[in-house]
Amino acid sequence: MRSPRNSFNGSITFLQDIGPGKLRVTAEEAYTSSYTNDYQGVPAGTAYPGIAGILPAGVTTTQVLNLFPVKGYALTNLNASYAWSNWEVSGSVKNLFDKQVYRRGVGL
Fold first, then answer.
1. Which residues, at least 6 apart from 26, have a Cβ–Cβ distance to it below 8 Å?
2. Does 107 or 55 have the greater pLDDT score?
3. CATH number, domain at 30?
4. Parallel, antiparallel, or unpaired: how do β-strands 35-40 and 66-70 relate?
5. Which of 30, 83, 92, 108 could join 79 via S-S bond, C-beta 3.0 to 4.6 A?
6. Measured in whole angstroms, how far is the alpha carbon of residue 52 from the centre of its chain?
7. Which residues pair with 83 in a beta bridge?
8. Closest to 33 (Cα-Cα) out of 68, 70, 1
9. Distance between CA 16 and CA 87 in Å, rounded?
10. Distances (CA, A) of 90 to 39, 57, 87
């Protein structure tokens, strides 16, 4: 629980001499398989607000109502830099394709 069975990371870097310096571009890909995350519902050991016909309000229990499944996902990052003499300019883009990922569940 809370940990994927598989995760993979990979990167590829392109280097090119341009003018007086060197351009470096790196693309990174990170994949995480599906997994089960935090509990949905009131945390165990606290008083429930009640579930009509099932659990009266104020009962403390260790019952787990549900677990929050997280689908597998892949994220791409891009880094670029140009270095010359004693200088370097760099920039990066995280989550290049603006992928929306849910990593946590929120209690009821």
1. 11, 12, 13, 14, 78, 79, 80
2. 55
3. 2.20.130
4. antiparallel
5. 92
6. 35
7. 22, 88
8. 70
9. 16
10. 41, 57, 10
Q: Which residues are within 8 A (CB) of 45 and not within 5 positions of it... i.e. 6 or more apart?
A: 60, 62
CA angle in degrees (0–180, nearest 5) for 82-88-91: 65
Residue 45 falls inside a structural domain: no
8 forms beta bridges with: 31
Query: How confident is the model over 46-52, as a mean pLDDT?
Result: 65
Average pLDDT rounded to a whole number, residues 35-64: 64
Domain span at residue 29 reads: 7-40+67-93
How far is it, in rounded angstroms, from Cα 55 to Cα 63? 11
Structural domains in the chain (count): 1
- Domain assignment of residue 21, yes or no: yes
